Amino acid sequence: MVFLLSLSFRPHWNRRIFCVEFRYHMELKPYEIIESVIAGARLGTKVLDRPHLAWLGVKAAAPLMFHREHRLNRASRFGFQKIGSSRWSPGELAAYKHDCIATLAFFQRVLDARDGREPLVWLGWPVPIEVASGFDDVAAFVPEAFMAIANMVGTDGHVACLEAVEREGISDDICAMDRISLGAYLLEQIPTPAAIVSVAHPCDASRTTSQLMEYISGAPAYTIDTAYTKEDADVELYSKNLFEAIAFLEDTLGRKYNWDKFRRMVVVLNEQNRYLNEITHMNQSIPSAGLSLGLQTAWGSKITGAGNPELVESARAMYNVGRFRLRYPQLRRKVEKFRIIVADMPIVFSEMSMWIEKTFGGVVVGDYIGDAIFPEIDCTSLETMMMGVARDRLYMGMVKQAHGAARETVDDLERQIEQFSADCVIQNGHQGCKHNRALQRIVKDVCRRHDIPILIMEADIFDKRVMSEDEIKRELTNFFVANGFAS
Amino acid sequence: MTIFNEIRQLAQSTSNDYLTRARHRGHPTVGYFCSYVPEEMIHAAGAVPYRMRAVGSEGTSLGDTYFSSANCSFVRRVLDKGLRGDFDFLDGIVFMNGCDHNRRLFDNWSYAHPDTGFNYMLFVPHGRSEACLAQYGNELAKLGRFLEERFDTELTAEKLWNSVALYNRKRALLQEIADSRRSAVVPISGTEFLSLMLAVSVVPVEDAIALLEQALAEIRAGRIHTEQAVLRLFVTGSCLEELSHLELLESAGGVVVADAICLGARYFERPVQVGRDPLAALGERYLRNLSCPRMMDDVAGRIAHVRERVSDFGADAVILEKLEFCSMMSGESYISSHELRKFDIPSITLTRELYGGGVGQLKTRIQAFYEKVINRS
Ligand code: SF4
Ligand code: SF4
Fold first, then answer.
1. Measured from the CA of B354, which atom of ligand 2 is nearest?
2. pTM above 0.90, yes or no
3. Domain range holding A454?
4. What CATH number is given to the structural domain containing B151?
5. Is the domain of A64 the same as that of A193?
6. Which residues of A touch B127 (CB under 8 A)?
7. Tally of domains in chain A
8. What parts of chain B have a pLDDT lower than 50?
9. Left (φ > 0), alpha (ψ -120 to 50) or beta: where does B152 sit?
């Protein structure tokens, strides 16, 4: 990684002054981000093996890491936030070790594929990973993973990817998550695929980016079409398309799909889901189990690793943390002063929930993705299993709310407000989610009906240039103070 | 007054006397969005299909109480009109999941419930495969049942084929008028053609046919829009309905000779093939017609279409039109401009707000682009 320092004069017309701005332009070496992820995951696997010791280490590092990103913590702060910003218990750290193991295996395989050991298949993030990981000798990758991992080299990592796309002349109307993944490819951070499987949901950004990815990479592609609801007929269409996608990969790659492996993965998925659903219940109690950040992690891990037994171990360990907390609620009562629902995706480039918890005693009890309500998969036949996998991914956070009619979003929010006994709602107002931004009136009315305040920001959850961490914190502080949650 | 004056008036108004007369004869009016809603089905149910538009929009202030500033100006303006009562003459609307903004238009419309009758959402797949076609067929069958119940009628094969015949006739007339622009002497400008499209998509099909026959007669009689050697343009993109915008393009020294827009070739190219099952024929035509960027598996087909038409109509350049916040067109314009460059076809992407400002800036960009195109030849 090379930083080029540039000095620029930026006019601030409203203040009628010129200000001097120093900007870092990050220049990435090919595959630097994935290599950083691998290094981080390897370190995590080792260090978190001794969770109590790790806990002490993280606590000791907190003063350097917690408040903001700077030169000294740039390459490690995102990782620090991923493990709870020093607010996680040793139990949660122990759970995360399993995510590290799964992450390490996943990304190592991508680099191996780059070196020609096996073909690489790109999957749009809502596509069940099982479509590719069910092959014995195919590596799967999800380019949208870069929305988060680009920050492993510091948050200028995602900016570097976005700037690469801007230089290409692609408009910023498209969700930054998709632009970051495109940028990562343009900057040689992702190996070229042998095939692509994309899906026609949940939003325009995914639809147009799939076309761009296919165009830019030139790889043969199959697009899964899905319908608008979670009803059986629509799930059936999705599941038929999943079978077709596997057949497409068999044809394109000249390899056989391992259906026994698929069956095993579905059984594992069911087990993981049961724990995740239970943890969501635990977050609903008062005080909550405080595990929504853990559920967010599980959301990300599931996209790249569904069916991996390590993720069951992670979920089981998290569940045990929750059980302990529910048994001794007085411990959480000290932490939890009020309860928050985030009515879209959490900010990705910097973790906010732990900051809110530490600073104001506000606990994010649920959001778009830290909330699991996965239906049990019927394992009687391949067909029922595939239907189950399709349905499972329609209940995956972000798809669950965004793929269909407004009621999918609005009912979900109403349910969350009621089940999680929320005191307020925050909507980050993510710029990419046009479908969500279009519902601001309806969402405000929901909160009015429930007599709880809502803050709607205009942030971009992936792009710090739209609203910086400091600006977001300022807005949140003003909101909490204005509504009597803080003084 | 030539027929084109009447057409221009129709194009610039929200409602018209043709609709009123049809209503008196017992034909309700049903609005619809996008080129994936088969008008034939609405017509066969005894109603007049009305293509929704923002023509005559006075702003977005009411629409903005539902949508955000990150939503496309088309939906904000249409909803605004709806909330002002401009569409109160409608008996219902068939919405469609064209894009995220459009699908939320259905949600916001249903929530705000202006006095425009029923709201129906037609879900259209994003691909053209056999599985998608089957799914679309199911959705059309559902729409059919809804219309039957709503208008207490039966969509028999006979009624549907009769409607197909009328709409095919309308398409054929539009095609002939569009094709007249192949010649060096262009009989009708792009602005006039867009007026024609706007007009004939809001009157009963029988009246539309009569208007088109008169327009065609005028063209056959030697109508001339321009004889001068000006830049011949091909226009494609997302929602485009502003006559003022095409006037801007043409007054700067160009003439639009062909297009691939929803109020253009996407509407009239390719007739419905008459066969055994009318719903299957409609499904095939509407799903596999000239696609728009929402269809994920046809980007190569769309590029091929542009190249073919550019060559057939002797176009000098391609204008890629995009409304602010239209993600679908953002990806499409990137791919299109790159592909066109490979074939040495100049193109420019123009981003605008529907009925928005910034005309001076747009004009400068357009003129600079025209100069560049002229200088290369
Ligand atoms: S964040 Fe919103 S716009 Fe971006 S991919 Fe997810 S649903 Fe689509
Ligand atoms: S211009 Fe684009 S965003 Fe706007 S309604 Fe049309 S397709 Fe949707």
1. 1
2. yes
3. 260-482
4. 3.40.50.11890
5. yes
6. 200, 223, 225
7. 2
8. none
9. left
